[in-house]
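Annex B. Sample input.
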Amino acid sequence: MSDTSTSLIRRRDFLKTVGAGAAAAATVAPTRARAQQPKRGGVLKHMGLEPPSFDIHGNISYQTQLISSFVHRTLFKFVNGPKHSPSDFTLVPDLALKAEVSKDGRMYTIALRPGVRWEKKPPVNGRELVAADVKYSLERARKKSGYASLLGQLEAVEVVDKQTVRVHLQDAFAPFVHNLAEPWNGILPKEIEDKYGDFKAAETLVGCGPFVLERYEPGVKAVFARNPDYFQKGLPYLDKLEWLFVKDRSTQLSLFRAGQVDIPFYDGRIPRADVASFKKSNPTYPVVHWDWLAVRSLAMRTDKPPYNDVRVRRALSLAIDRKKWVKEYLDGHGYEDHGPVPTPMREWKLPPKELGDGAKWLEYNPALAKKLLAEAGHPNGFKARCAHWPGYGPEYVEDLELLTFYLKQIGVELSIVNEEYGKYISGTFLGKFDETTWGPSSIFTEVDGYLYNSYRTGQPNNRSHVSDTQLDVMLDAQRRYVAKSSRKKAIDDIQRYVADQVYYVFTPYPKNVSSWTPWVKNYQPKNSFDRGAQLEVVWVEK
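Annex B, continued. Sample output.
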């Protein structure tokens, strides 16, 4: 018996997870159909964001992942719809039917869904999606993506036959199948790169997903139409989807209040300051609070003074009154300790009382902060430049102002440097700054993304330039554990270690408040950038 077939028995629980998800996916649509009678047709007008490029491997922009997911599909995806919470990451098959893992956890055999076809346009002309497409896409992601580390140590991708691909890893990597569901792991046709040289331009957005790109108007909108040959029969319900590039938040909300758009932001968010008035002006619209997975932090050049001194880093954290921040500035709708593992990841999150010595650096103690600064040679504090992108919105700017206020109370003055998005996402967001930067993380649906990416030596998302041999060993080890109990213990230890070292200063995080028009049905906010999977089950009913 081969390793693979042996593992099919011994790893029955793993396969049941994917299989159970598949069964769930098969039953959700009919149940929903009987309960709410999906209606085909209509146009959904959705506030969106214009991507800097359409290449899902060429940059790590979430705007690119959002818009590409309408057209590009992944091997697996997460469940969607109102029956599932925003952070329900149960996997169901997408372009793949199943994945089998070898006994040593280093080889995955993936069976593809037969009969999936690319769009009927040059250069793919409706040909069938095959294993060679998966090999090409995974190898391209390994070479070009800023998230390549989230594929583990990818050794080789083997085409077994037309609809079977085998992935070889240098070491076991527990999150491998899970990460295949992220939009940056969409499957691409090689012919596009052969013809255009890359995937940057809109005309390269050719795929096999629920929608096809009908029209792109730079600076205005992208219009998608239902893919008549989509392999998920009966989906999507919408005829068209208009992804509108309106940047100004007040304009977005005005259009939404007037019913001229159906969803007011890329994730349905409305500004916290406008919630009360919005409920009065639009009382029939649903308004929901929900947990968001991104974290906000002050990243520091820990490879340089003064941030290479742990006393300085601890002082910055002690300056923040997190309880008051949540109670008074977030009206109680937020979390005091939201990083590095986001609070909604409850199966992994370690509460402050279990952080050991690191817990005390989350307390509000400006007197101790000043004492630590003095011991580190900064009795009068210091000044620091802090780069960020204000385009995340006024709430992010207000939170940075609040952080600046708290740090000033211990003598640390942040000089805010506003950057344009292109410079920020390709430079500062990847650690290319001189002193500090503040802003949100990307969102990851697997806990490894928040730990390995942020702390492992040499990773592009290691914005604080952490280089800690002991921590590297811990980060590598948690990836190898297949047994969840063993991995949980390793991740608990990592959280205790980094809480004490304070390589990042995490600020409180608010719950999101989202809304959509009452005639949008089967919509649910989702902690994922896979808008294609989210909106393929949505319909409009006016």
